[in-house]
Structure formats: C-alpha cells, structure tokens
Amino acid sequence: MTTFDADGITLERVRENVWEITRDDGMRVPARVLASEALLEEISDDKTIQQLKNTAHLPGIQKQALCMPDGHQGYGFPVGGVAALDAEEGCISPGGVGYDINCGVRMMTTNLTYDDVDGREEELVDALFANIPSGLGGGGVVESGIDTVEAILDRGMEWALEEGYAVPADLDHCEDEGVRTDSDPSAVSQKAKDRGKNQIGSLGSGNHFLEVQRVTDVFRGDVADAYGLAEEQIVVLIHTGSRGLGHQVCTDYLRRIEQEHGDMLAELPDKELAAAPAGSELAEEYYGAMCAAINFAWVNRQLIMHRTMEVFERVFDRSHEEMEMELLYDVAHNIAKKEEHTVEGEDRELYVHRKGATRAFPAGHPEVPAAYRDVGQPVIIPGSMGAGSFVLRGGEHSMAETFGSTAHGAGRVMSRTQAKNEFWGGDVQDGLRDQDRIYVKAQSGATVAEEAPGVYKDVDEVVRVSDELGIGDKVARTFPVCNIKG
C-alpha cells in the first residue's frame, strides 16, 4: 500500500511505518504519522488526522507536525502529537500541552520478586487504595497553605528533598532533575493555587493509576542491567499529573489568548490550537506558569511514591531500604519545553510540544541522567491494566526523526462514554482477577469500565513500531499484579 485515505485526507507512504500528508494551503510544513497500517485503521474515522493537519498551520513550526504510534483524537493537537515551534519567531500553544500539564509516569524498582507478592495481592491492593488519595476533588499526602504550594511551584523536587520526601538520587533520576528553573509562581492564578493546595500527593481520576507490576521479559539485557531491571522483579508504576492546578493554568491562559491574540487565533483552522506569539508577554507568562505546574506534578508523583514506600513497609514488615525501593525514572508526557535541536544544519531553540508523547533522548545526550547516559534515557510506556507496560530507551534515530520523542502509552480506541456503554466495571474487575490474577480497586465501577483493557490499542504494536523506527527501543516488559484507580 502506497497511500492511505482517512477522513477525506490522503496519506502517502514514505517508508515502512511512516506516512505523510503533503503540504496544502495554510500548512507550513508536511504532517507525518508514525504508525503501521493496523494502527492507522484505528484512527481513520475520528479527527486524529485532521487535528494533526491543523497543527501544521501553527506559526514557526519546524520540519513536520508529528503523530506518534499511539496517536488518537485529542483537544487541538491529537494525543500523541509532537510539534517543535521556533522560540523566537513561532508560538507556544496551551492546547499543545493539554489541561493536565506534566501528566507523566514514574517507575520505582524493588528487590522483591513475584513470589514475595503472590498470595498477598488483595492485602496489598487494599492497603494502597486506603492510603494513596485518589478520585475527584481534594485530599493529598500533604495538605497545606498557599506558601507551600508556591514553594513547590518554584523549586519542584528540591522542595521535596528539603522536606524529607525525597533523597538526592530521586532528583538525579527525574527528567530535568525534577526542577524547571523557568517557573514563575506569580504567573499561576490564585484559583489554580487554591485548587492545588489540597491535592499534593494524589492520583486524581480518569486514566491515572498506581500499579504494582512484575517484570516478565527483558529484551536488552545490558540496558536492563543499567536500569536495575530483571525478570520476575516487582516494580511500581505511578501515572498522574498536576491535578486541578494544572487544569486551571491551561484554562486561564486559553481564555487570555482568546482575548489578547484573537488575530492569530482567527488565522488558525481550529480555535483549540490557541497560541501566544513567541516573545509576547503572554507567551512568557504562560511558559512560566506551565513550568511551575510541571514542578507541582513532579512533587505530586514524588509524594505518592513516598506514601507507597510506607505502605510496602507495613505490608511486608521491612524497611524500604531493605526492599531497595528506588526511583528508576520519572518522565513527562504533556509538556512544552525550550530545547535546542538541529534544523537544516542549524542549531535552533524551539518550543517542543509533546502532547501525549514522551521525551526519548538517545545514549550520549547531555540531558540524559549520568547513570543512564551510556545506554539512553528510560522511556516508560503504560499499557492497559490487562495488557502490561513497557520500558524503552531513547532510540538513536529519535533526534533526527521526532525531536527526541516517542509514544506515551497504548492510546485509546474508544471514548469514555462508549466504554461505559460497552463494559460493566464489576465484570471487568472480576475477569481480570479470575483470568489473569490482576487485582483492581477503584472509587467507582464507571472508572474501571472507562479504563477496561478493550478501550486501548495493542500496546505491543505501538512499541513494535517505535522500536523498528529507532525512536524508542524495547528494553523490558511488565505485567500488572494489582492496580488502584480514582
């Protein structure tokens, strides 16, 4: 097959797993989808391809608008979208980051094996659910005043270290060492701070979760060794973001962009792409506020990890040091950052928007933590709660092909409304427990139905495409043991 038609748009095959929409009126660059034919079929009837094409209209966009293998319809940008916009002559788009700023994942390793957990899954899932705040609204590991929120917005993981919730190695194993120094807490509204003050250390709802997993497969032994991973080992995966604070930051700045930069908005094919021109006061304020929300999300995940250690200590009656509970890596997948990339032989500073996409820097890149620089940055790809997840490493072609990016998960094939019509939460829980020995606990059956395994793409196929393109290489696979959700 040399062409593929989706929603009235023709994609031309560039090479295996790479499809391109040729520039037409208004598009400043071509648009590319990185996917197999099977993955393309799953997005052919929704707005994913149209949203990607729309993204190519943004001022200052470089090379191509990109959609990763897990792409699906989103808000403005498709989820799985990557766009690099010139930081001097382009723009920055809140829709290219999303409402859940720095939604991301972290993986914690242990020296426990599956034999240590086998038969105690129900005890463990009950203890985690009782002690890790989840669901809509307030409730967190730390409930405090605005002064604490502002300190977190300003210093990120450095605050967690100072307060005893982190150790230095946690910062070493976090994207950007857990601190965006460009943050500006004064650019975050009082309403956003009020929403965040009682949510520090909480999962929230939707697709956010904490999952205890076992490593089932190792594909690259040398890299797995560097990451501290081995077969049958127990690991913990945490997926959440900046909660109500980040949502409010996005809402605030979308409204201001509509009011202050309506001229740019009028030139774009979709108002959800609302963007502030690079160099404008509003662009600088949004960037500072977004970086502050990024810091909040890193601390949020750190506090959940801290509480998880305490739960494991009680359940297994030994210290977290004895269990060697350590952070492997924390990486964002809803973010826009100033990064330097080579475009047409010239190094340029770009706002790299990753909307449901993961940074995937290769071995040798100076921003990869020193512990992993020889093998490449860890990339964590959650699957569904019935299909397992993957650990990848940044691939050698990622910088040239995707501005150092790859997929962020399995990607949805079904809306939440459709999922609740198709699945019954109790049946999903019973099936996972009885057939696969996966114990799931959630605030409501509706949440389980919305996140049923059948709602997601085949994560194996997503990862296969990433691996074959050399943007994210398979290192290890994990499988769920127990899972808590909002």
**Class derived from helix and strand content:** alpha+beta
Using the coordinates shown, work out and report the CATH topology: tRNA-splicing ligase RtcB
How many β-strand stretches? 20
Q: How much of the residues is beta strand, in percent?
A: 25-35%
- Identify the strand order in the major beta sheet: 1-2-3-4-5-6-14-13
Largest sheet: 8 strands, mixed
CATH superfamily, by name, is tRNA-splicing ligase RtcB
The CATH architecture term is Alpha-Beta Complex
CATH class: Alpha Beta
Count of discrete alpha- or pi-helical segments spanning 4 or more residues: 17
**C-alpha Rg (nearest Å):** 21 Å
Anisotropy-based shape: globular
Weakly predicted, low-confidence segments? none
Q: Roughly how many Å apart are the termini?
A: 43 Å
Helix amount: 25-40%
